[in-house]
Amino acid sequence: MVADVSDFPALLKISAIGYRDLMGMKMKEQRKKKKKNKAPEEEASTDSCENSCVDSVEEADSSSSSSSLSPSTTGAAAVLKEWNGVRELAGKKELAASGFLCCFMVAPRCIQPVHEDHSFHTKSSRLLRNGNSIEVIASKNMSQGDDATEENVMDWVKHDNRRMLHVVYRVGDLERTIKFYTECLGMKVLRIRDLPELRCANAFLGYGPEDEHFVIELTYNYGTDEYDIGNGFGHFGVSFDDISSIVDTVRDNKDGKIITEPSPVNGSCSIIAFIEDPDGYKFELLERVPSHEPLCRVMLRVGDLNRSIEFYEKACGMQLLLTRDNPESQYTIAIMGYGPEDENAVLELTYNYGVTEYDKGDGYAQIAIGTDDVYRTAEAIKLAGGKITREPGPVPGIGTKITACLDPDGWKTVFLDNVDFLRELE
Q1: Which residues contact 68 (CB under 8 A, 6 or more apart)?
Q2: Domains of the chain, start order
């Protein structure tokens, strides 16, 4: 069985967390205390945990016993070496690495955390960086009432500190994809985590550190060499000051494919091109002046544009930045995000006239967004008509608070607590 770690994008910086938990959390004592206080019915549900977590596992080729992972020289090897050191330390401390990993990779689907009081009369928080540390500063009450009414929930969403953190999708050969992204698209490997006990690995790539930039999280499941991308996912957008040189580099790479050559967009002076990576994911190359966020777009197709706009405004707190209708090609797009596209990554929603449903396949996974409060976020999602797929709360063994939902078309979004996310990275 393969646990798909893309369901838990907040669990980052595994090596640092491993040292912290192994040395500071006294996991043995916690497990003993938990076992002593566990009710009979809880024990029964835990025994069948693996069977009940069917949503978080995938069948893999049982004959495949090792990964083809061989990080390039762009910094991935050092990260992987650090992670292996954590596993070795775990063995010395008599803590099985497999148990250490499973406590946060599998248990979230089976164990419901005990929720604290997160009603809307409590104070929100904001983050301030002070050198290498993080300060949590209490802010004014978002609501004077005690009830989580729709009005104050939606008002809080507008003031929440949100940012698109990363996009998650699955690939069939991690080494091949890393090589293509670094050599052809100029990305950097930010870190890699290899989880042999769960027969999977992740690589994070982008154009800058994760606490400041939108990045890509690649998921590789041992023994699975291809995925169905479907026709719902559209493409990723990346900006360059000279896309012709990028296209030429892709042309010389045996694993890439050029879909359209650089050319002006109809009715404008913008130059774009489309390429395809080794797994068939499309990238739109946009010729622009250098910006803070080169990885700038994720395009998804939706069946009702107005419905989707309303959901992402209310549930996700995004702004509608632009709409453009193209009757000749029979489609309309809406650009949504948390600020101007030259400074922030955005979501591009595309509606094709008369098409209400799409095949989402099993390749694309989700977008991760930061929030100051996952509990309030989940309440807003419910009020906006979204479906919660993971109730808000801390991930057992790690403490990172997350919640996950589906939009009206079934596209998944995971929200991560801002403070927890930054602490994990550091």
Answers
A1: 173, 174, 175
A2: 2-113+162-425 (3.10.180.10)
Q: Which two tokens stand for residue 357?
A: 């449903």
Is residue 313 within 8 Å of 380, Cβ to Cβ?
A: no
Alpha-carbon distance of 123 to 143, in angstroms, equals 9
Closest CA to 60 of 202, 161, 196: 196
Say whether 183 is catalytic: no
> Rounded distance, CA 423 to CA 134, Å?
8
Distance in angstroms (rounded) separating the CA atoms of residues 248 and 76? 26
Phi-psi category of residue 367: left, alpha or beta, with phi > 0 → left and psi -120 to 50 → alpha: beta
Give the residue carrying structure tokens 């490997």.
189
Contact between 283 and 274 (Cβ < 8 Å): yes
Token duo for residue 87? 């596993």
Phi, psi of 347 (to 5 degrees): -105, 125
Q: By the 8 A CB rule, do 370 and 212 touch?
A: no
**Identified catalytic residue from 284, 293, 341, 348:** 284
379-418 pLDDT, tens digit per residue, is 999 999 899 999 999 988 778 899 999 999 999 999 999 9
Residue 79 tokens, joined: 């990260």
DSSP 65: -
Three-state SS for 37? helix
Tokens representing 22 are 């192994």
Beta strands in 196-303 (DSSP E): 200-206, 215-221, 233-240, 257-264, 271-276, 282-287, 295-301
State residue 308 phi and psi, 5-degree precision: -70, -40
Neighbours of 133 (CB within 10 A): 10
Evaluated on CA atoms 182, 219, 398, 316, the torsion sign reads: positive
pTM: 0.69
Residue 151 is predicted with a pLDDT of 82
Tokens found for residue 9: 């994008």
Encoded amino acid at 62, one letter = S
